[in-house]
Write a structure and sequence with these properties.
By secondary structure, this protein is α/β, with parallel strands linked by helices. Helix content is 55%, strand content 11%. The longest helix is centred in the first third of the chain and has 49 residues. Bound molecules: adenosine-5'-triphosphate (ATP). It comes from Mycena metata.
Length: 674
């Protein structure tokens, strides 16, 4: 193994970034990128809100109203109960403090006078007990109501999201700038956040009302309690994690250590043993470790915190004690107006008030996220598909019974999300006659599958035109086109359902399975057609030592294992099922046989041709043989262009790209025959 040197450059270092809108901070192995803000914005408390006027506030409030109203309408009674319980939770703390204060005061008065009023003490104890029961019952009720409401909310939005996601076409869903679908879990969290803000505002009103009414300086105490949260939220402590930030591992030695460490996992064991790589990995690992040195890999949050001076912490903590200092100073001037009990009560009120204000302030920055998420949620329904549906039915009076006829006129195409500077398909023109068997060949990345996707109108061309039976493909109804096309691709995906449902309903399933060559695979499996190959599994546990639980867990996690070729047979069976509908007029097999053995591949192609019933068929393949010889037309692609088109004989006679590709394979057989 050749010695390789770990690259020492950071991934951004080489770029000439002429962007001075952000600054970088190195924190151990991390590089933190932070926006540069104006001096003025540093002085103003940062709430991460970017209101651009009343209009925006109005539209935001309307949006949040729509969201809460939609949830309310799901179950008005349950929502009202939840709302009332949250209101109760908002005043519950203040009531508890009031009851405790009353009890303390009654006892203190009795102790000072030497004649405790047993009735008053009993009443205070009873009130404290009632408040305790009320508080516990309230929490218990919230814990019971909340999951029921959560289920209803998530189910409602799950339905909505599923329908909105399923209607998106490929180019639209690949475009991350237009669609940002929030996870349903966050929708519930959003609702909880809004209810939480409401609850805390109610709590704050209750606490302020109560604290202000306290004898001996309630108003002053209320104001002093607000100082610490205000200081810690905005003025003193700049918190980069509430605004925009990016951090990444910029230390490449650290990345190399991590990558080499992965060789010790099971994943690479076979390669390590077969390639005799063990000692090389250890050597490289030690070298990278040495280069890494003692640089810290603690998380960037704590590294950032350790960088700041302790002054904001000191000031914030001291400001939290202002109510205590105030009480101490007041006691000096008017000792008789204060008692230890009143101090304890005021202390508790001040603390509770400070806590509520701190949380409310910290939540202000969350409003932006809440609004963004709600906006994204409703935007999903407004996203327009990039592939515009046509209104011409297919088949129609002009459609040929023999199958779809295609004409490509100077077609060029690039994937919207593609990174290549070159077009994926370049100025491609050709004609595919109805009922013909067409084979597309060409090297990897030459655009074969992309061409198929254009014929299936999974994407639209950038320039040029595709005609189906002489009419632009864009004029047809998409659903009609797709119903008349069968696509069997190399990227086979098994559905997370039973095998029967993977192919179709049970009717005809067995016949289709046989045609796809999947009948034997399925008969080998314990549950036959009811087997789920890629089921959704959610079994968790740790059953160490408990034999029965161990075997239950193992069974729950067990998946039926089939080979890549066997999977391809099952997906092929699904395509045969589509043929049985009688609607198919164009079928494509895009390298569906890459994992099949030669016999199975030959059989598959033969059956596809038979099942196609003479309709237009396209096969994309790297293997030359029966197919290319029988094809009515071969399209040979290279770098996105159709460099040659014609029959096998014509292309062989031309001695160009196709004959070269053919001869490479034929030569291998000729050599092995020697
Ligand atoms: N979804 C996609 N988004 C962006 N680029 C893509 C996408 N699919 C394919 N490409 C790019 O388009 C080019 C042509 O790919 P395509 O799959 O059509 O080639 P191919 O001839 O079928 O290759 P192969 O023989 O390996 O299957 C490649 O450079 C590929 O990276």
């Amino acid at each position: 193994m050749e010695k390789s040197k770990a690259p020492q450059e950071d991934k951004l270092e080489g770029d000439k970034l002429e962007d001075y809108s952000y600054t970088t901070v190195q924190l151990g192995i991390w590089r933190l990128l932070l926006p540069i803000e104006s001096a003025a914005s540093r002085l103003v408390p940062k709430f991460s809100l970017s209101w651009s006027g009343w209009e925006e506030i109005k539209s935001t409030l309307l949006l949040l109203w729509r969201f809460t109203r939609e949830i309310y309408m799901l179950n008005p009674t349950l929502n009202l109960i939840f709302f009332v319980l949250k209101l109760g939770a908002g005043i519950e703390g203040t009531l508890m403090l009031y009851a405790s204060g009353l009890l303390l005061r009654t006892v203190e008065t009795g102790l000072i006078s030497g004649h405790p009023d047993s009735n008053a003490i009993m009443r205070a104890v009873a009130l404290r007990v009632i408040c305790g029961v009320f508080s516990s019952t309230l929490q218990w009720s919230i814990h019971h109501v909340s999951p029921i409401l959560q289920r209803q909310v998530t189910m409602h939005f799950e339905d909505y999201m599923m329908k909105e996601r399923l209607r998106l076409d490929l180019p639209t869903s690949a475009d991350k700038t237009t669609v940002s679908a929030p996870h349903v879990f966050y929708i519930w969290r959003n609702f909880q956040f809004l209810v939480g803000v409401f609850e805390r505002m109610f709590r704050l009103i209750a606490q302020i009302t109560f604290t202000i009414q306290q004898p001996s300086g309630g108003i002053t105490l209320t104001l002093l309690s607000l100082v610490s949260p205000i200081l810690s939220t905005g003025f003193l402590r700049k918190n980069p994690w509430k605004g925009s930030f990016v951090y990444y591992v910029s230390n490449l030695d650290y990345l190399r250590v991590g990558a080499l460490n992965m060789f010790a996992s099971e994943e690479y064991r076979e390669e390590i043993i077969a390639g005799h790589l063990g000692s090389w990995v250890v050597r490289e690992y030690e070298r990278a470790r040495k280069a890494l040195g003692k640089i810290s890999d603690a998380n960037p949050y704590s590294l950032y915190a350790t960088q700041a001076t302790p002054i904001p912490n000191i000031v914030t903590n001291l400001s939290g004690d202002l109510p205590t200092f105030y009480w101490a100073a007041s006691a000096l001037f008017d000792p008789r107006a204060f008692s230890i009990t009143s101090f304890a009560i005021l202390q508790q009120h001040a603390q509770a008030l400070r806590f509520t204000v701190s949380i409310l302030f910290s939540e202000v920055s969350g409003i932006q996220d809440c609004v963004t998420m709600t906006r994204d949620l409703y935007k999903m329904a407004e996203v327009k598909n990039k592939i515009v549906d046509g209104d011409r039915p297919y088949p129609n009076s002009t459609s040929s019974d023999k199958g779809m006829e295609f004409e490509l006129r100077n077609v060029s195409f690039t994937y919207p999300s593609g990174t290549s500077k070159e077009n994926t398909i370049r100025n491609l023109s050709c004609k595919i006659s109805a009922g013909h068997l067409v084979v597309i060949v060409g090297p990897n990345g030459s655009g074969k599958s992309s061409l198929i996707k254009l014929l299936n109108r999974l994407y639209d061309v950038d320039s040029g035109e595709i005609l189906v039976d002489g009419i632009p493909i864009t004029e047809y109804r998409l659903a009609d086109l797709h119903r008349a096309q069968a696509l069997l691709t190399q990227d086979h995906k098994l559905y997370p359902l039973t095998l029967a449902e993977n192919i179709n309903d049970m009717e005809m399933v067995e016949k289709a399975a046989e045609a796809g060559g999947a009948d034997q695979v399925i008969s080998k499996l314990k549950d036959g057609f009811d087997t789920k190959l890629d089921p959704i599994q959610t079994a968790y546990g740790s059953a160490k030592g408990h034999k029965k639980l161990e075997s239950i867990l193992e069974n729950l996690e067990k998946k039926a294992d089939v080979s890549g070729g066997e999977k391809q047979r099952i997906v092929a069976a699904r395509t045969f099922m589509r043929f049985s509908s009688g609607n198919i007029r164009f079928a494509v097999a895009d390298e569906p046989s890459s994992a099949l053995d030669p016999k199975a591949e030959h059989k598959l192609f033969q059956r596809l041709r038979e099942s196609g019933g003479g309709k237009t068929m396209i096969f994309v393949t790297h293997r030359f043989g029966h197919l290319t010889k029988y094809a009515n037309l071969i399209i040979c692609m290279k770098d996105g262009e159709a460099v040659e088109t014609g029959t096998h004989q014509e292309l062989m006679a031309r001695g160009g790209e196709y004959s070269e590709l053919y001869n490479v394979q034929a030569q291998a057989f000729a050599d092995s025959a020697l």
